[in-house]
Amino acid sequence: MNQSESSSSADPINPCPICLGLVKQEAYLDRCFHRFCYNCISQWATFVATQHSHSQSTLKCPICKSDNSSIIYGCDGDSFQRHYINHDLGNRFSLSEAHKYRLRCYYSESGAICKKFDVLQYWKRQRYLQPNKWLQSWLRREFQVLTQEEDVDIIVHHIHGLVESFMRRKEKERSKSTPEQNQQEFKTAVSDAARPFFTERTERFVNEIELFLASGLNIEAYDKVYLECLGLNAPDATSKGAEVHEQTQQVLYFHLFDEDSDNGD
Amino acid sequence: MQASRARLFKEYKEVQREKVVDSDIQLVCDDSNIFKWTALIKGPTETPYEGGVFQLAFAVPEQYPLQPPQVRFLTKIFHPNVHFKTGEICLDILKNAWSPAWTLQSVCRAIIALMAHPEPDSPLNCDSGNLLRSGDIRGYESMARMYTRLAAMPKKG
C-alpha cells in the first residue's frame, strides 16, 4: 500500500474523527464530504459490511449519518480515485481479468476485429450448421460482464436456446433464403431477445456474438486474436490481489463515466 | 489493538485538556490498563437525579473505535433504561447506532441526556418504565429521587 502522508493535509485543528490523529491520506465521503484518513474510513466501511448479512451499497457517515456511496481519495487537483462501498464485500461477484478485457471491448471500436473474422463467409458457407460447443461458456462470460452479476443462468439459457433453435430451423430450411437474409434474421432475433437486458448495448452485443460464431474459434484462441487487435496482452494469470482489484475499480468507474457523458450530449 | 491504544491515548490527552470545560463529567483512566475507564457524571438539573454523582464503568474492546465501549452504571439508579441490578444501559449508540466518531467523553454526554430523557418504551427496568408509561410521573420521580439520595449522594454525617 502506498500510504502517502501528505503533510499538506495534516490539520491539527480538524483531526480524523476516527483515529483522532492527523489525517493521513485524505479521504472524503461523496455526499456529505466529511473528511477522514483513507485507512480509517475504509476500515469502518469494511467493518460495517461484516455486520450486515445483505450487501450494503451505502455507508452512513460516522459524523452526520448521511448515506454515501463512495469514498473519494487521492485528490491531486486534477484527478481523484473512488472506492465504491459495495465493492468491499467479499461475497460480491468480482470481475476476473478476462471479464475486464471483455468489458473494455464494449468501449473500443469494433472496426479492427471485424476485419479479422469474415462474417459474411460464415453465412455464405453455412458454417452455422455446425453447432458451436463453446457458445454457452462464451455467453456466460459476456452476460456476467454486461450485467455485473455472477448468476446469469437465465439469460444464458434464453439466448443460447434461441440461437440453437434458429440454427436448427435453418438446417431444415436449407438454402431457401440468401446468406444476407439469414444474417439479418439472426441479428433481429438475437437483438429482440437481448434488448430487455442490455438496452443500448444490445447492438454491440449482437455484433460480438456474430463475430464469435464466425471466428469458429474456442474462447482461448478467440481471446488471443481479439486482444492482439485491441493491442493488449493476454490476461496475465499471475497478476492477482490488490492490483487486480484496483484495475476493476478503474474500469468500472470508466463505465459509469461513459454513461454520464452519453446523457450529457 | 495498536490503533485502539493510540486512539485511547489521544482521548486521554483530550480529557486532561477538557477537564475544566466540562465539570459535569470526570473521566478517569485505570492506572495500569488503558482499556478500563471510570467516569463520574453529575445528575442533570431539573431531573430526579439532580444533586447526585453517578459512577460509570467503561470496558473498551480491542476493536475500538470500530466497536462501542461497554458501559454500565456502578451507582444504583432508578431509570427505565438502566438495569436496576447490573447497571446495564439500553442506549442505541452503545449498540447498533454506534459510530467511531463517538468518544468516551461524548458517550458520557449521551448518557446524561438519556437520564434527562428516559425512553420508557424500551425498558430494562420495568417498574420504572411502567410508572412512566402509565403516566405516573410523580411516582417515577419520587422513586428516582429516593434512589439518587440513597446511592448517589454523600451520606449525611
Describe the model.
The complex is a heterodimer of chains A (265) and B (157). With 265 residues, chain A is of the alpha+beta class. Chain A folds into 2 domains: 3-91, Herpes Virus-1; 97-261, no CATH class. Helices cover 52% and strands 7% of the residues of chain A. Chain A has 10 helices and 6 strands; from the N terminus they run ββαββββααααααααα. In chain A, the strands form 2 sheets. Chain A has a 4-stranded antiparallel beta sheet. A two-stranded antiparallel ribbon of chain A has the order 3-4. In chain A, α2 (97-105) crosses α5 (135-147) and α7 crosses α8 (202-215). The two termini of chain A are 38 Å apart. Chain B has 157 residues and is an alpha+beta fold. Chain B has a single domain (1-152), classed as Ubiquitin Conjugating Enzyme (Roll), CATH 3.10.110.10. In chain B, 34% of the residues lie in helices and 15% in strands. Chain B has helices spanning 2-18, 104-116, 126-133, 137-151, and strands at residues 25-29, 36-42, 53-59, 70-73. In chain B, β1 and β2 form a beta hairpin. In chain B, α3 packs antiparallel against α4 (137-151). The longest helix of chain B has 17 residues, at 2-18. The termini of chain B are far apart. The model of chain B has no long low-confidence stretch (mean pLDDT 93). The A-B interface holds A 15, 17-21, 40, 43-44, 47, 60, 62-63, 65 and B 3, 6-7, 10-11, 14, 63, 65-66, 99-101, 103.
Keywords:
heterodimer, A: 265 residues, alpha+beta, Herpes Virus-1, 2 domains, four-stranded antiparallel β-sheet, two-stranded antiparallel ribbon, 10 helices, 52% helix, elongated, disordered N terminus, disordered C terminus, B: 157 residues, Ubiquitin Conjugating Enzyme, 4 helices, 4 strands, 34% helix, 15% strand, globular
